[in-house]
Amino acid sequence: MATVSATSLNFRPLTTSPPLGRMDQHFAQISRQASSVRMIGAACTKNITFPSLRTSRFQVSCMAKPDTVQKVCDIVRKQLALPAETELTPDSTFASLGADSLDTVEIVMGLEEEFGINVEDENSENITTIEDAADLIEKLVQLNSSHRI
């Protein structure tokens, strides 16, 4: 049986692979570190495992309270004169509901009035779904209440 020593191995970086983005480089570095810790742990008869870094990377959830989402749905339904049977979900986009830019501005104004908040122009440009609006409202209401204390 042949033995291989660390000095007899020759490691070269791959020159044909495309450059990695910053997050990919960070993930690759952590993966290498985790692999070497697992090898060391195995040599010490301890099996060290790490949670996957990618399992919750793309988790999607609505941060807003259900009653906030419902109020946003009610305002959108009223502003766009949507029939009661039109299904609105947090993922519903204003554009898919037939809203143009003026409608979106009027929706934001209705939200400001209902919740007693002020939505800055740069924030209002990022609102494209009911969920976006509800999440922003929760954030602004929380900021307003923390400033009053």
UniProtKB/TrEMBL annotation:
<feature type="domain" description="Carrier">
    <location>
        <begin position="66"/>
        <end position="141"/>
    </location>
</feature>
<dbReference type="Pfam" id="PF00550">
    <property type="entry name" value="PP-binding"/>
</dbReference>
<protein>
    <recommendedName>
        <fullName>Acyl carrier protein</fullName>
    </recommendedName>
</protein>
<comment type="function">
    <text>Carrier of the growing fatty acid chain in fatty acid biosynthesis.</text>
</comment>
<keyword id="KW-0597">Phosphoprotein</keyword>
<dbReference type="InterPro" id="IPR020806">
    <property type="entry name" value="PKS_PP-bd"/>
</dbReference>
<keyword id="KW-0934">Plastid</keyword>
<comment type="similarity">
    <text>Belongs to the acyl carrier protein (ACP) family.</text>
</comment>
<dbReference type="InterPro" id="IPR009081">
    <property type="entry name" value="PP-bd_ACP"/>
</dbReference>
<keyword id="KW-0443">Lipid metabolism</keyword>
<keyword id="KW-0150">Chloroplast</keyword>
<keyword id="KW-0276">Fatty acid metabolism</keyword>
<dbReference type="InterPro" id="IPR003231">
    <property type="entry name" value="ACP"/>
</dbReference>
<dbReference type="InterPro" id="IPR036736">
    <property type="entry name" value="ACP-like_sf"/>
</dbReference>
<keyword id="KW-0275">Fatty acid biosynthesis</keyword>
<dbReference type="InterPro" id="IPR044813">
    <property type="entry name" value="ACP_chloroplastic"/>
</dbReference>
<keyword id="KW-0809">Transit peptide</keyword>
<keyword id="KW-0444">Lipid biosynthesis</keyword>
<dbReference type="InterPro" id="IPR006162">
    <property type="entry name" value="Ppantetheine_attach_site"/>
</dbReference>
<keyword id="KW-0596">Phosphopantetheine</keyword>
